[in-house]
Amino acid sequence: MGSWTSVSKLSLVLETGEHQSQIEHDGKDTKGMGVVVTIQPTDSDGNPVKLSDDELNKAQVDLIDYVDEKPMPTERGSNNGWYCLRAGASRPRKDGTLIQFMYTVSWGTGNSYLHAKSIGVSVAIGSKVVYSSLSGTYHSSVLVSAKS
């Protein structure tokens, strides 16, 4: 197998298996919703690549705003209210080439004007970045909204 140069699959789904959901909000914080990102790393010939533990740890897979491709804040209190946390290590699937990354998305400020968020993902492979966004190569996304 060659080295990782691209992806042949890039998708997002909520931990419930759905693509949109409401998050309970008590006026102060939310419980959060799990987001699962699945990628299929490939080499320059398009063949699946099994990543080593070191490559998995270095993988730059980040949640972004689906519309403008800006990174999702990783701290509570961001100006739009939404933030995400990476929820642990990657889990290779049974064939060893499909990789999943888990995130938790929350809405942390009660005065935000933006009660819903469309979320995409970016994958950095060296200097190349692949997007799942409105204008990206892939178009998988999830929609979360705050329910008070």
How would you describe this structure to a colleague?
The protein has 148 residues and is mainly beta. The protein contains one helix and ten strands; from the N terminus they run E-E-E-H-E-E-E-E-E-E-E. It has one helix spanning 53-58, and strands at 6-14, 20-24, 33-42, 60-65, 82-86, 91-92, 99-107, 116-125, 128-132, 142-147. The strands form two sheets. Strands 1, 3, 5, 6 and 7 form a five-stranded antiparallel sheet that branches. Strands 2, 4, 8, 9 and 10 form a five-stranded mixed sheet that branches. The longest helix is centred in the middle third of the chain and has 6 residues, at 53-58. The model has no long low-confidence stretch (mean pLDDT 82).
Blueprint of the fold:
Blueprint lengths: L5 E9 L5 E5 L8 E10 L10 H6 L1 E6 L16 E5 L4 E2 L6 E9 L8 E10 L2 E5 L9 E6 L1
Parallel strand pairs: 2-10
Antiparallel strand pairs: 1-3, 3-7, 4-8, 5-7, 6-7, 8-9, 8-10
Our estimate of the beta-strand percent is: over 45%
Give the strand tally: 10
Helix content, binned percent: under 10%
**Mean of the pLDDT scores?**
82
Give the low-confidence spans: none
Radius of gyration: 16 Å
Q: Specify the oligomeric state.
A: single chain
Shape: elongated
The main pleated sheet reads as: 5 strands, antiparallel
State the separation between the terminal residues, measured CA to CA. 50 Å
Number of distinct helices: 1
Give the class from helix and strand content and strand pairing.
mainly beta
Q: What is the string of helix and strand elements?
A: EEEHEEEEEEE
